[in-house]
Fold this protein.
Amino acid sequence: MEIRTTFHKRLREIQDDILIMGSMVTKATMLAIEALQNRDLALAKQIIADDDKINRKRFDIEEKCIQLIATQQPMASDLRTIVAVLNIITELERIGDYAAGNAKIAIMIGNEPPLKPLIDIPRMAEKTVDMLNRSLKAFIDHDVEAARKISAEDDFIDNLYDQVFRELLTFMAEDPKTITRATRLIWVTHNLERSADRVTNICERIVFMVTGKMEESNTSIY
């Protein structure tokens, strides 16, 4: 009984760490878009520097999981939970990398005049962050239906991505001088679209954790 109590105590600590890491990632995702909108190069540089903290958090959680497996020898659903954690932190780290990538693009753009008002790109970021926050809640709650619903919402991100992509291609076709600026914005939208795909991977792991069955969505990345 004492062993089980210790296991669940440590698992709760790991879950708390995941929520902290998730908060770091969502903050970086939104701040990168803010840096792009406001041409805030100092903020962009800070986001890039802070990516190391996200990476360290991932390795810290991974170490705790390995130690938990070695000392508690979890079985069945408990083991699936730890496996899910190891996969989720990998996805979170990659989303953090995309945020850092967008911060680097903001630096590349520098003080160039904006090609167009940024409307759909911030919407993509907000929706991605919303999906991520809800997926982590679904993880804590073991909520399979919520995870499935969030995966389905990835179509909204894909549609926005296609819309922005077509619009930026129109700018390029009409004025070749805009090609560089438009291409950089396409990179930003691509990073956000990939971030949302990573959220669907998290949702798949939640389903597996609870049911023991892997349900692969059409948008997942491996």
The mean pLDDT is 92. Residues 2-211 form a domain with the Methane Monooxygenase Hydroxylase; Chain G, domain 1 fold (CATH 1.20.58.220).
